[in-house]
Write a structure and sequence with these properties.
By secondary structure, the chain is of the alpha+beta class. It is built from 12 helices and 7 strands.
């Protein structure tokens, strides 16, 4: 479709006939992300609120379809990169996110932390050095005041505001640790996601040497602490709560956190779209 034909199609957004609009909408959504610049221009240049609303809905649907497509591809990959998935999901709320900008921010954090970690010897000293740069010098912390906010789950807002929920802080910690060679993994504890320092030798059959709680500024905890937590929460102790989880489990939990946040905020349409993304994992 050339520019003239596309503009003619977009002009039909002003047509009051619902059947005409439905036909136009289907065609534009089918054309996909290539028509977004013209749709965005139509939204900016038209002062008719009904036309703006129609354009906005079509833009969102095109973006959402692209997210579904990207997440499907990620699920099918053997090497499931955590940062890649986080960008895909963050684009649900922030479709114009500048990936390179935030990759550079992460690279700068990696560089700062690596300088400190390289000067240490023991594993606990390395984590202490990591925590000093990440939490004390850069000010990352748990968002205790607005714990239910969806923004706690998006990479751009977590980096911009230097705060997040247990999962998002853990994800950023894992991504940085991987780049500096620290064997940090996710631990899918119920109600409170944490991370662990993996034990390659698995002394006594335990794959985790010690646990770290990024929501509490990197506090070191042990298995007994987790057992006490489970008992206090009246949860049955299961082996999966003490062992590493893969990136698929982390991303599914990220989506479930978003579902909870949007439900808490009474954002029913957004909650339903997140359910659609969650279901992609069941189809794979």
């Amino acid at each position: 479709m050339n520019d003239k034909e596309l503009n003619a199609l977009i002009s039909l957004l002003e047509d009051p006939d619902k059947e005409v609009f439905d036909s136009v909408k289907s065609r534009l959504v089918e054309l996909g992300i290539e028509v977004l610049p013209e749709l965005e221009n139509a939204w900016e240049s038209n002062f008719d609120s009904s036309v703006q609303d129609r354009a906005e809905k079509i833009i969102h649907e095109i973006h959402f379809r692209d997210i579904v497509k990207s997440l499907k591809k990620w699920i099918q990959k053997k090497d499931k990169n955590l940062l890649e998935a986080w960008f895909i999901i963050s684009k649900y709320q922030y479709p114009d996110i500048d990936e390179q900008f935030y990759r550079t921010k992460i690279y700068n954090l990696v560089s700062q932390i690596n300088v400190e970690v390289e000067q240490t010897y023991s594993e606990l000293e390395k984590i202490s050095a990591f925590n000093k740069v990440f939490f004390t010098q850069n000010g990352f912390r748990g968002n205790t005041r607005n714990f239910q906010s969806p923004d706690n789950s998006f990479i751009n807002t977590v980096i911009d505001k230097h705060k997040g929920n247990p999962l998002s802080l853990s994800m950023l910690y894992i991504i940085i640790a991987e780049q500096i060679g620290l064997p940090i993994c996710g631990v899918n504890m119920p109600k409170h996601f944490i991370i662990g320092f993996e034990d390659e030798n698995e002394i006594n059959g335990d794959p985790i040497k010690f646990y770290i709680n990024p929501f509490s500024k990197g506090a070191i905890i042990n298995r007994q602490d987790l057992q006490v937590f489970l008992k206090r929460e009246k949860l049955k102790e299961e082996s999966k709560y003490f062992t590493p989880c893969g990136n698929t489990a982390i991303v599914k939990r990220l989506l479930n956190n978003l579902l909870h946040s949007f439900t808490f905020k009474s954002k029913k349409v957004k909650a339903q779209e997140i359910i659609t993304l969650i279901r992609l994992f069941k189809l794979s």
